TrEMBL record:
This is Peptidase S1. The lineage of its organism: Bacteria, Bacillati, Bacillota, Bacilli, Bacillales. It comes from Rossellomorea aquimaris. GO terms for biological process: proteolysis. The chain crosses the membrane at residues 20-38. One of its GO terms (molecular function) is serine-type endopeptidase activity.
Length: 403
């Protein structure tokens, strides 16, 4: 289930566009389906090379105001470097996540729930009678029911607490009686290239559940541009050569102490390319997860526009735009109740700067917006409308206000 559906039972109607921008707008609105899990098509392709796959099996940097003071129960992982002991204990905290979706019968017209894909998850926190699981948003997106397969083979239904497509994170809740073993969250800031890491997950489905692969940290703080159901964004990730395959999404990347320092999420799958997997580091997922557990969502500043990269729009559709304008975003749609609409921004406008800083593309605008600004801040956008350049001021509202 996507983030917008979690926030409100009455989503806004799609914005109306014209001509090419209408098509672009439809593509943006329709992108909520691009990571929906389908049979054996669990990954998406980035629009540019190299091809990046989100690694759920199918039947995919932003700041946050949340705190990161979750205190998980520690798993006794043996001595540092004792891989067999680490794996034996940590595997009990790794679960299978099955995404069920409503599927119609073309012969009878009836609809029924069917397993649409599988991924992995990590038990990391127990509070009262509840236990919490971290997984990827693309593992559970579009689900009408989520089932968790536990270490001993027992299955239970999970409740989706909240999800954040832009960081590809989601939090599930199950009965605390199923959480005898929890992983301790480690400090990904302490990682160095060359350190040993272990990946545990369910590649290619639950038949190969809790498969263990070993490798090293190939690099820290990589930036990967990805398309999500909420738009293009950039993820800060740990790069590893530990094998990460379809179905590993949402699984654990452990350090040599058996601590959870990453959530396995992506891989590069070009022909001839091996050993390029990526995990969301704990320093980034913990604030997001904390906020989801506390509020059920992640609050961010909201302008109220759908956008596409200027580079992706033929110049013939942007009549009058000066040749010198070679970067920015095109406004493809507008929320008519938003700050953008009230400030006079129109479809077809090209945004080139935010508070005097150049905007390269949609991912860059989101990065500036989420990393440096907060709800209630006043911003200035440099906008081209044809050949005319103007500065438009508006006050940022909250995405949580969108119904």
């Amino acid at each position: 289930m996507n983030e917008e559906k979690q926030r409100s039972a009455k989503p806004k109607k799609p914005f109306k566009g014209k001509g090419f921008l209408s098509t672009v707008s439809a593509g943006i609105i329709g992108s909520v389906l691009t990571l929906t899990v389908l049979p054996h098509t669990d990954y998406y392709e980035d629009l540019t090379q190299p091809k990046v796959e989100q690694s759920a099996v199918s039947s995919s940097q932003t700041g946050s105001s949340g705190n990161s003071d979750i205190t998980p129960t520690q798993v006794s992982a043996g001595t540092s470097g004792d891989i067999a002991s680490i794996v034996e204990d940590a595997s009990q905290s790794i679960v299978g996540v099955v995404n069920y979706q409503q599927q119609g019968n073309r012969f009878t017209g009836a609809s029924q729930e069917a397993a649409a894909g599988t991924g992995s998850g990590v038990l990391f926190k127990k509070e009262g009678n509840s236990a919490y699981i971290i997984t990827n948003n693309h593992v559970i997106e579009g689900a009408s029911k989520i089932e968790v397969s536990l270490y001993d083979g027992e299955k239970t239904e999970a409740e989706l607490i909240g999800a954040d497509p832009l960081t590809d994170l989601a939090v599930l809740k199950i009965d605390g009686k199923y959480a005898d073993n929890l992983l301790e969250v480690g400090d990904s800031n302490a990682l160095r290239a060359g350190e040993q890491v272990i990946a545990i997950g369910n590649p290619l489905g639950l038949d190969l559940s809790r498969t263990v692969t070993q490798g090293i940290v190939s690099a820290v703080d990589r930036t990967i541009s990805v398309d999500t159901s909420a738009g293009e964004t950039e993820l800060n990730v740990i790069q590893t050569d530990a094998a990460i395959n379809p179905g590993n999404s949402g699984g654990a990347l452990l350090n040599s102490k058996g601590e959870l320092i990453g959530i396995n999420s992506l891989k590069i799958s070009n022909s001839g390319v091996e050993g390029l997997g990526f995990a969301i580091p704990s320093k980034d997922f913990m604030p997001i997860v904390s906020e989801i557990i506390e509020t059920g969502k992640v609050e961010r500043p909201y302008i109220g526009i759908g956008m596409t990269n200027l580079a992706d729009v033929p110049r013939s559709y942007l009549r009058g735009l000066p040749d010198k304008v070679d970067s920015g975003v095109v406004v493809a749609s507008i929320d008519n109740t938003s700050a953008a609409a009230k400030a006079g921004i129109k479809e077809g406008d090209v945004i080139t700067e935010l508070n005097g800083t150049q905007v390269e593309n949609a991912a860059d605008l989101r990065r500036q917006l989420y990393a440096d600004l907060k709800v209630g801040d006043k911003i200035e956008l440099t906008v081209f409308r044809g050949e005319e350049e103007e500065t438009i001021s508006l006050t940022l509202t909250s995405n949580a206000m969108v119904n």
